[in-house]
Task: structure prediction
Amino acid sequence: MSRPARVAIIGLDCAEPSLVFDRFAHRLPNLSALRERGVWGKLRSCEPPITVPAWMSMMSGKDPGRLGYYGFRNRADRSYEKMTTATSLAVKEPLLWDFLGKAGKRAILIGVPQTYPPRPVNGLMVTDFLTPSIESNYTFPPELKAEIAALPDVHPYEFDVSDFRANDKAKIRDAITRMTDKRFALARHLVSTRPWDFFMMVEMGTDRVHHAFWQYMDPTHHRYTAGNPFESVIEDYYVHVDRKVGELLEVLPEETHVFVVSDHGAQCMEGGIALNQWLVEKGYLVLHDQPSVPTRLEALKVDWAKTTAWGAGGYYGRLFLNVQGREPQGLIPAAEYESTRDRLVAELEALGDPEGKPIGTRVHKPEDLYREVRGAAPPDLFVYFGNLRWRSVGTIGGPVHTFENDTGPDDANHAPEGMLIAVGPDIGPKGPVGGMQLMDITPTVLRLMGQSVPEDMQGRVIETIAAH
Result:
């Protein structure tokens, strides 16, 4: 390369490759034009394929086992109740912009998950959707916050759509678009007015629109009705995002290498499995009193001395074992730990739909997913109900199979493959490329920008993008 490369990453959380590359492609002129000029393809997510930890896995080049967190909420210790939220304070591994900063390169970062609370960077940072409110300290340097407040097309800045799991769909649709417009307006302002070598933004609207509107678009969804008033919301939103990407591209310097990337995909959510209810019915989880209506586990009195296992809800199920000498009232002898896990794996994978038909559940042991397993108390098992087409529901007091979500209306679950489009002066048109994984992004960008790749990174350089 004859000049120092400049790289811009446009992150679209949960953007689904089948929609971008196929179903909506004819209506996405900017993204489709980028594909024609460069390298593109599916990008395998991490395990589990969830926003937290996926973006930090991408930015560190390391898997969640090394990072030590496996979702938004993680056990803080071996007690039964204490949980923590994985904010930036949980991030211990150096990230892409840390390496670039040490090399004197300036970064602009907007909305990258797990950047709140903000940390010093060689450049600018605007934090992510975990930011509590606009009243929070959400920028580095701190004075950037006042500058954002003075931008009429950005203020009041919005980090997320607070009620995307609600029933007022028209309100949610409009809120997602408004949030997206502000994020892209801020991006255009900062890349146009500040010096930078590396720019990265992550838009959450692509994730929120899937969860709120998938049933209106997908004929395979059990609630789909042809001709419904929200049938085109997801497609129209993708068209809108494509337009915003085009506007951002117009203000990027011509020599910029551009990556458009998603951390995972999306798919129809067929239903939910009440993991803790199943554990109760199988005798693994013992309560002092049975609730008569669906109730969160945290609100119930568990007889821990008689409990073998308990779980947590979410897009995948996390299952924890009550082990002697490890948990305060451990029941399982250490010598029976593996046989207990094996029995639970077999029984959960055999659990079918309400009629008993197989749904393809996969249960993973963390040591089978990761080179090492860090964290205060990582899950003993990862449960992908229906291979992630069924959600894990955490409540107790209802049926094991449910078509109502315990955290509000939700139509989509995550899919294990996101997407990548990469173009630039040093990236020739290569067409579709296979075998890419999100941990490959950071080593590839480091190579493009003339930096060495640390040996402990698990990702690899994508040679079709950044050849030697």
User: Anything to note?
Assistant: Residues 290 and 397 are 7 Å apart (CA to CA). The chain has 13 helices and 21 strands. The first strand starts at residue 7 and ends at 12.
